[in-house]
Structures are given as C-alpha cells and as structure tokens.
Amino acid sequence: MKSLILGAVAVAALAFAGSAFAGPVTLKSNPVDVDGRITLGDLFDGAGNASDVVVGQRNGPSIVFEAGQLQAQARQSGLEWANPTGLRRVVVRQASAPVAADEPPAPTAVAAAAPARPAVARPAYADRVISRNDIVEVAYEAGGVRLTISGRAEGNAAEGQRLAVRNLQSGRIIDAVAVAPGQAVAGPAAQSIRTQQFAAR
C-alpha cells in the first residue's frame, strides 16, 4: 500500500511540475470567444504558447467557469493567474452575443464579496451541478495523500451522482462522483458516497 501511495505522489509531482515555472498572466476584462472553443488565449493576456489550449466548450451564448478551475488549468499549462481580486467565477460570452434590452450590462467576473444573483434554472436542470464538457476538478484521497486533477465532464450530473471525467493530460476516463459545481471526488471517497446512497434506499 505504501508503494502505491508513493507512486501516486510521484505521478502527481510530474503532473504539476510545470507550475514551478509558471509565467504570470492577467485575466481579460471581458473574455469572449468566436467559435465555442474556450482557450487560455481567450481568457488571459500573456498566455503565449498556451494560448491555444482548450479549457471548455460553450454550448450557449455564454459559459461560466469557477475561478479555482481556471487557476488549476492555467497552472497545468505553465501559466500563473494570481486572481488578485478574489474572483469566484468568470463568464466567457460569445463575441457577437447581444445583451437583452431589459438586462443591464453585468461585469464579466463576479467578485467574492459581491452578492450572488439568484440562479434562474430550467426545471430539467434544477439539480444539475456539472454539465457535459464542463472543466471539473477531481480530488482523490488515500492514506493521507490528496491528489487533484482537472478533467472534462463526459455527461451531466447532480450532486451525489456518478460522473465520467476525462483526464485532460492522459485522456483516460475517471469514475467519479459529483459533489459541487465543478467539483468531484474519486476513489474511496466516491465509493463511500455511493455506499451511503445505496443504504438510504
């Protein structure tokens, strides 16, 4: 068991090795995209060689990213976004998406101190916390060691539901459980949640 844990730590160290050489970038004041593929270049000034790295797929007029997810994704690509204003979410809009006449222009990034606007969710998606193609941070804990990776959701999931997540580095599918918007767990923690749900039936 100890050798497995040490091996997992070694893999994690390689996965995050690029963060030690990360270059600082600045979030654009009004991120937009034109083709539905959200790249680091759409989000950050100074992304350089990482500008074409895809971090999300927009299926509507806009897409919302959790700030922590963007930090992790940028770090994996050798970029460092310090998030100096403490943003919680970042919205990327379609370049040509018009603003409704009765909707005042809203700031693209929502500060941590700003009151959250009530979400107007469609009934079919009321319980959904992760949607297909969302960038998801998956946590794995075992033997006191915690590892996190970023992946792309292969489907939709409500809190506590199973979710397949594709590792952005290796392309492998991870069997996880959704726990919050943009957050999932794998391994023993995921098994524990599924066991509790089965016992509650």
Rounded to the nearest angstrom, the radius of gyration is: 18 Å
The end-to-end distance, rounded to whole angstroms, is 33 Å
Secondary-structure element series = HEEEEHEEEHEEEEEEEEEEH
Runs with pLDDT <50, length 5+?
A: 4-22, 99-103, 106-113, 119-126
> Strand percentage, roughly?
35-45%
Residue share in helix: 10-25%
Largest sheet properties: 5 strands, mixed, barrel
* Class per helix and strand makeup: alpha+beta
Overall form? globular
Distinct helical segment count: 4
Rounded average pLDDT = 77
Number of strands: 17
Order of the strands making up the biggest sheet: 12-13-15-16-17
SSE topology sketch:
Blueprint: H1 2-15, E1 23-24, E2 26-27, E3 32-33, E4 37-39, H2 40-43, E5 44-45, E6 54-57, E7 62-66, H3 67-76, E8 79-80, E9 87-94, E10 109-111, E11 128-130, E12 135-142, E13 145-153, E14 157-158, E15 162-167, E16 173-180, E17 183-186, H4 188-200
Parallel strand pairs: 1-8, 3-9, 12-17
Antiparallel strand pairs: 2-5, 4-6, 7-9, 9-10, 11-14, 12-13, 13-15, 15-16, 16-17
Protein architecture, described:
The protein is of the alpha+beta class. It has 4 helices and 17 strands. The chain has helices spanning about 1-15, 40-45, 65-75, 190-200, and strands at about 25, 25, 30-35, 35-40, 45, 55, 60-65, 80, 85-95, 110, 130, 135-140, 145-155, 155-160, 160-165, 175-180, 185. A 5-stranded mixed barrel has the order 12-13-15-16-17. Strand 12 (about 135-140) and strand 13 form a beta hairpin.
